[in-house]
């Protein structure tokens, strides 16, 4: 028996032309320093992908068909690149071997019921199509056709697909964009983060061919915002989620440096701060959060930063090099900034009101282990205190005075004390906003107003994992899924959100991965060694595991995420089995036989 793998692109996708249906390139509008400019496809062409070019194909023998059992994956080398060969339910599949998000090796991920989950950040891909099914990331995997002949396995694949290890889904384009009134659009998306971009892309992937306009207060096209605190010296073009040409090609218009001041839901009009009005048919609000500022004296002086843009992050790195840095707030942003600057600054001090970093999120024991890691890397903590004053010298920051009486030398101060929903412009709109400013939506990301949807950090939505309790989950992965669900329901698909929250943080070359929703946990069961920073922590409420976190314990978090995504419950009594013999636990989950966990099975 022989297995051959060949790239296949559906015929209907091959026939797509690079031009819009009206035969004209459609413009992307974006603003630089407030000036609108139009870019056309002819100015910035995108190279087309000819996967079917015979000269681009490669074939190699990789293994025997009996080398793989059901449920196994193998990374195979074709000489000019690698593929992921999978056997499930007696059938072979082959896709790209790297996660398109950050390049994680999928062979180390989790295979379950027709999809593979990334071991690093939880993105999921269909093994039959390569399509992305859960996030983060925007692209799918290239898929290769599998043929079986003569007990030897051969893979025939496109060199280009093997090298890029990603595939952008085919999308519709806007029909006759030139016929539209500039002040009206079918879909208006307020916010150009992950939720807004995924919404726009999903609409095009589903064949939507009417006008889409995104608007953002930012100067830049959508970018990878988590990198602002994890890789602070990244320039905007380095962290862009899509190049300018992408927006031109798929007729997604982006208005930058444009702030919506109000929404008139009766007239379906968005009123911009500069007086411009735009009519819409469907509206997505994905404005995210606004960082909280300090309330003490001196908060407005130079060299005091909230990290909101690439320019903010770049400037902090430049000013902090060989200088004294004070970070206020042991939030994810604050801790990641401290870790990034520790080797660059002369000193890094971190001020926090709580006793231990991450105590409410990861628990006290994990928080103390993380704190110890920071202290071993020259970060000084000042806990259970607040900033009372920022002092200046010749107009620049000189000292940070704490309520405890301690005075810290400071050339730069970074504020990471949390954020509030950026929804102030909706207060008089009639859209349901809760007491904390979050937009309330249902399982389909719909607000109380027909045709108005909301997504991302600014929403409260029903989380299936927690019996549809309304929660706020300000995670990058969740924003992607919100945007997709909103888009599908703009098209009346009736799709409900059911994803498992998944996040990660990176500090000193180490990552903590986390899945679930641990709000209100009453116990933490830890397996492994906290001192060695190799552990898995299970967060329980009553008898049920509601979240899991790990460091140097991959792919346990992705495995637990798959169990939770299937609607299965992990009990507190099962934790030892999950941590110590995860392969047995997960094997039982896949077969549906969980009896061994309670000692009743084999």
UniProtKB/TrEMBL annotation:
GO MF terms held by the record: 2 iron, 2 sulfur cluster binding; metal ion binding; oxidoreductase activity, acting on NAD(P)H
Cell location: Mitochondrion
BP term (GO), one: execution phase of apoptosis
Chief location of this protein within or outside the cell: mitochondrion
InterPro entries according to UniProt: FAD-oxidoreductase/Apoptosis, FAD/NAD-bd_sf, FAD/NAD-binding_dom, FAD/NAD-linked_Rdtase_dimer_sf, Reductase_C, Rieske_2Fe-2S, Rieske_2Fe-2S_sf
Keywords: 2Fe-2S, Apoptosis, Electron transport, FAD, Flavoprotein, Iron, Iron-sulfur, Metal-binding, Mitochondrion, Oxidoreductase, Transport
Annotated ranges, domain Rieske: 60-155
Keyword Transmembrane: no
Family that this chain belongs to: Belongs to the FAD-dependent oxidoreductase family.
Described function: Induces apoptosis through a caspase dependent pathway. Reduces mitochondrial membrane potential.
Protein name: Apoptosis-inducing factor 3
Gene field: Aifm3_1
